[in-house]
């Protein structure tokens, strides 16, 4: 699909006021990239190149929702932090992606209001307050709402920086929403266990025991 320079300026111009210096920009529609300007984090995308499964561009075109997060190097061979927006291009749903280094600072970013998770071939935006806990399992990140599992491309260490204060890191592999905790007990080895309202049991590692006690006041 050919896009005129005026059309490209319309989309990229929307972000000129805040795009960090050195960011790359890509536009995709109909499953392929139609525009790319390299930045400090160069993914070496080519016009006409197919959008890969699991990339930020694919998720946005499927969900029609703004999304962002760290994308692992297995997607495009180079890790990157992407911030993407759904756009309309000649009546087609496309994606405008701002591509940043994987260590892009999240300090000034607002807390997540929702996360977009994948189930089979569907993506669903889930309000953050409905998520009970998050898990890192076999190099993938999952979050659970209503006991339903959803996969996300954002690793726990990145999620932790953008979650509301109601979420606590309790383990290298777990982050829990305090609103869903039923009680905290000890196991047979005197280690702490978090029991959620739906019966799920999550271990608390020694590394985070003091943090949990301080946060919950016990």
Provide an overview of this structure.
This protein has 218 residues and is α+β, with helices and mostly antiparallel strands. 17% of the residues lie in helices and 40% in strands. The strands form four sheets. Strands 2-1-5-4-3 form a five-stranded antiparallel β-sheet, sandwiched between helices. A five-stranded antiparallel β-sheet has the order 10-9-8-12-11. A hairpin with a 5-residue loop joins strand 13 and strand 14. It starts with a helix and ends with a helix.
Count of β-strands: 15
Order of helices and strands, N to C?
A: HEEHEHEEEEEEEHEEEEEH
Using the CA coordinates, give the radius of gyration: 20 Å
Determine the structural class based on helices, strands and strand pairing.
alpha+beta
Number of helices: 5
Helix content: 10-25%
Net shape: elongated
Mean pLDDT: 86
For the termini, the CA-CA separation is: 61 Å
Point out poorly predicted stretches: none
User: Main sheet: which strands, in order across?
Assistant: 2-1-5-4-3
Range of strand content: 35-45%
Largest pleated sheet: 5 strands, antiparallel
């Amino acid at each position: 699909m050919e896009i005129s320079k005026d059309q490209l300026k319309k989309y990229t111009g929307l972000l000129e006021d805040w795009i960090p210096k050195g960011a790359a920009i890509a536009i995709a529609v109909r499953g392929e990239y139609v525009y790319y300007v390299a930045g400090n984090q160069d993914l070496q995308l080519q016009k006409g190149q197919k959008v890969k499964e699991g990339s930020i561009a694919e998720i946005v075109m499927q969900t029609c929702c703004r999304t962002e997060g760290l994308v692992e190097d297995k997607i495009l061979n180079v890790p990157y932090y992407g911030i993407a927006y759904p756009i309309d291009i000649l009546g087609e749903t496309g994606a405008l992606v701002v591509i940043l280094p994987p260590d892009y600072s999240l300090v000034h970013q607002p807390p997540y209001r929702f996360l977009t998770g994948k189930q089979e071939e569907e993506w669903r935006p889930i309000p953050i307050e409905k998520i009970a806990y998050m898990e890192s399992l076999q190099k993938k990140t999952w979050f659970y709402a209503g006991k339903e599992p959803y996969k996300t491309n954002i690793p726990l260490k990145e999620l932790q920086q953008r979650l509301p204060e109601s979420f606590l890191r309790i383990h290298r592999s777990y982050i829990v929403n305090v609103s869903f905790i039923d009680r905290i007990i000890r196991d047979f080895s005197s280690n702490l266990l978090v029991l959620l309202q739906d019966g799920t049991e999550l271990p608390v590692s020694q590394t985070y025991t003091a943090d949990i006690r301080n946060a919950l006041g016990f």
